[in-house]
Design brief:
Length: about 425
C-alpha cells in the first residue's frame, strides 16, 4: 500500500511518524495531510536506507538539488561527490538528471548512497537509449518509455518527473500564441519532438493509467512535470503553460483516486509580480497538491548569478504557499554544475525556503531567527555559528579579521550593539 492509501484508511506509517518528528508536528497532522493529498512522503518501497521527508502544506519548505552527468562530462565518482556536497549543504532531496555515461549504474550508485529521497526523469534514459538502439529519439516506443519508468521504480527511485501535461492541445496553444523561448524543458522538448514527428498524442497522457499502476506498485511519487514552463519572462503565464496546468490538475485528481502520491511542477522564468498568482492558480486547479518550482527565476539577465535570481523568486513563491524548491546553481544556462556550484545553489535555495517559512508561519521558523538575534546581541559567536545556515562559512568569514574584543571587525570599538548596551544599561532616573 502507498502512503496515501494507508493515510486514507486512517493508518499511521513509520514514515509518517519520522516526518512528524522532523517537522515537530503531531503525527495525525501528517496523516491527515497525506490523506488529503496536500502532503506527500516520497518513499519507494525499494529504497534501502531512506530517511523519509515530508513535502507539503504546513511543513518546512523543502529544497531539491539536481546532480548528474551530461553527454560529455561527469562520472559516478563525480556525481557521488556532488551528492555528498548537496547533503552536507542541507538539501532535502536530490534528482539524478544524468544523460551521459552508464545512466543506470550512476542512478543505482546514487540511490545506494543517498539517505535523501532520490528523483529522476526517466524519459532522459528512454530517449537516449532510443537514439542508441533505433537511431533517433523520435523512434522511442511506448514500451521503451514505460519499460524505463518501471526500471527506475524497481531500482528504488522515490519520485519521477513525468511530463504528462505536454499534450497536442498545449502544443497547439504554444504555436498559436507564439513564444520567445519555445520549450526549454529537456523532457518537454523530447516529448514534443516525438509527438510532432509521430503525429501522436503524449503516451504519458494517453496511457496515464499504465503509469499509475507502476507508481502504485512501488509507491513512487509522481512529479507532474511542467514541460511547457516559460524559459523567458516574456513567455510567463501564457496559454500553453496554463493549458498544461489545467491538464495536470485533472491528472492529480486521477492519481489521488488511484492511491498514488503526486506533486505538481511549476515555473521557471516568472516576473516577481506573477509569482503569487501562479501559486494560487496551481493550488486551486490541482486540489492543493504540493507545488514544486524551479527557481522561479525573476530576471533573464543574471546568468552566472542565477542561484541568487532563483532564490529571490523562491522566497516569494515559498511565502505564497509553494512547498518544494528546485535549486538553481550559478552554472544555470552556462555549464554543467560542479560541486561548488551545487553547494552555492543549495545554500541560496535554503535561504529562500527559510524566508518563505517565516512568512508562512511554519513551526519553529521565526523562533530560529529569534535565537540567532539573541546570540548576536549577546556576542555569543559560538552559538551564532551553530545556529547559522552555514556554520563553516560563518566561522571562516568571522575569523578573517579578529579584534580581540567581543565585537567583530566590521565596526570594532564603534560596535553599535556595545554602545547601545552601555547606555541602555544606565539606570533610568525619574525626571525631577
Ligand atoms: S561590530 Fe558592528 S557588525 Fe560587529 S557585532 Fe558589533 S555592531 Fe555588529
Amino acid at each position: 500500500m502507498t502512503q496515501l492509501e494507508l493515510a486514507k484508511e486512517g493508518a499511521v506509517s513509520p514514515q509518517m511518524g519520522q516526518v512528524a518528528q522532523h517537522e515537530g508536528l503531531a503525527v495525525e497532522v501528517i496523516r491527515q495531510g497525506v490523506a488529503l493529498g496536500r502532503i506527500v512522503i516520497p518513499a519507494n518501497i525499494n529504497h534501502r536506507g531512506l530517511v523519509p521527508c515530508g513535502i507539503g502544506q504546513g511543513l518546512k519548505t523543502k529544497v531539491n538539488a539536481n546532480i548528474g552527468t551530461s553527454p560529455d562530462f561527469g562520472d559516478i565518482d563525480t556525481e557521488l561527490g556532488k551528492l555528498k556536497v548537496a547533503v552536507g549543504a542541507g538539501a532535502d532531496t536530490v534528482m539524478d538528471l544524468s544523460t551521459g555515461g552508464d545512466i543506470a549504474a550512476i542512478r543505482r550508485a546514487i540511490i545506494a548512497e543517498s539517505t535523501l529521497p532520490v528523483g529522476t526523469v526517466p524519459i532522459y534514459q528512454a530517449s537516449i537509449e532510443a537514439l542508441a538502439n533505433h537511431g533517433a529519439i523520435v523512434k522511442m516506443t511506448d514500451d521503451d518509455l514505460f519499460g524505463t519508468i518501471e526500471e527506475h521504480a524497481r531500482d528504488g527511485v522515490d519520485f519521477i518527473t513525468v511530463h504528462c501535461g505536454v499534450t497536442r492541445q498545449a502544443i497547439d496553444r504554444l504555436r498559436i500564441q507564439k513564444r520567445v523561448a519555445d520549450v526549454v524543458s529537456r523532457g518537454g522538448a523530447f516529448l514534443m519532438g516525438w509527438m510532432l514527428h509521430n503525429e501522436s498524442e503524449n503516451p504519458l497522457y494517453e496511457q496515464y493509467d499504465r503509469l499509475l499502476e507502476i507508481a502504485r506498485q512501488y509507491d513512487v511519487t509522481l512529479s507532474l512535470g511542467d514541460g511547457m514552463r516559460p524559459g523567458s519572462l516574456a513567455d510567463a503565464t501564457d496559454r500553453a503553460q496554463i493549458e498544461e496546468l489545467i491538464t495536470l490538475g485533472e491528472l492529480v485528481q486521477r492519481a489521488y483516486q488511484a492511491g498514488v502520491q503526486v506533486i505538481v511542477e511549476g515555473p521557471g522564468h516568472l516576473p516577481i509580480n506573477q509569482i503569487e498568482a501562479n501559486v494560487q492558480l496551481q493550488k486551486s486547479l490541482c486540489n492543493e497538491a504540493p507545488f514544486y518550482v524551479l527557481g522561479p527565476l525573476v530576471t533573464d539577465v543574471a546568468a552566472g548569478y542565477d542561484h541568487i535570481t532563483g532564490a529571490i523568486g523562491g522566497a516569494i513563491a515559498a511565502a505564497a504557499g509553494t512547498d518544494f524548491l528546485c535549486y538553481v546553481t550559478p552554472a544555470e544556462h552556462l555549464s554543467l554544475p560542479d560541486s561548488e556550484d551545487v553547494r552555492q545553489g543549495v545554500i541560496a535555495s535554503r535561504i529562500a525556503a527559510h524566508a518563505g517559512d517565516i512568512a508562512k508561519g511554519i513551526k519553529g521558523a521565526g523562533e530560529w531567527d529569534r535565537k540567532m538575534s539573541l546570540a548576536r546581541k549577546n556576542f555569543n559567536w559560538a552559538e551564532q555559528a551553530r545556529l547559522s545556515l552555514d556554520p563553516e562559512r560563518f566561522s571562516r568569514v568571522h575569523e578573517k579579521h579578529t579584534t580581540g574584543g567581543q565585537a567583530c571587525s566590521m565596526c570594532g570599538e564603534f560596535c553599535a550593539m556595545e554602545i547601545a548596551e552601555k547606555y541602555l544599561s544606565i539606570p533610568v532616573t525619574k525626571c525631577p
